[in-house]
What does this fold into?
Amino acid sequence: MVIVREANDGDPAGTAAVFRAAGLHVPRQPSERHHIWVAVSGGNVVGAVEGTFDSDFNGRCRFPPEVTRPHGYLSQLGVLESSRRKGVGTDLLRAYCEAAVDAWVSFIVASPADFDEGMTARSGFFARYGLVEVGTGLYHHLIGATPRDVIARIRARADRVREVAPPLR
Ligand SMILES: CC(C)(COP(=O)(O)OP(=O)(O)OC[C@H]1O[C@@H](n2cnc3c(N)ncnc32)[C@H](O)[C@@H]1OP(=O)(O)O)[C@@H](O)C(=O)NCCC(=O)NCCS
It folds into this structure.
């Protein structure tokens, strides 16, 4: 079973190992500004997401008119290769988006690297949950969506999975 929770003092080594293996940067220490959630299986960190809720992308992104500041910035999301395609990334994205809603953030932005072999996974994953190109960052394009829309898409997917599952006897 995989549990998603906020990172604690015992997680930095596991989180760093997951991010390194996923080709990402070692995460910052969690703080009032930098939030981290981890996915844990059998006592081991198998995935993590890192982000902020006080960013300002005005001038760099095209937002729908109802979007207000601050914006969320999902800086890194990674899952160990052996745990991919099992919904772990989805659970982490959902944890980040739910916290964004709680923090009154109306839009989240990510800047996935666009030059390595993980591109197919990244594009498929973020597109699945409605993140679309909204601008250009320093090095990569910026994608984003409202956290409420992402959560709605994740819920709809979970409902569809339940519909196709055989009924319990
Ligand atoms: C992107 C990443 C986080 C996805 O994690 P994951 O746990 O495998 O994602 P999920 O199992 O929740 O996938 C949900 C959906 O995303 C899409 N998706 C995920 N991986 C995909 C791939 N390799 N190709 C196409 N679509 C993919 C699918 O629609 C998938 O649903 P399905 O399995 O029912 O078809 C993972 O591949 C990863 O860590 N990559 C390396 C690091 C990275 O690129 N991070 C993002 C930028 S910071």
The chain has a mean pLDDT of 92. The longest strand covers residues 44-55.
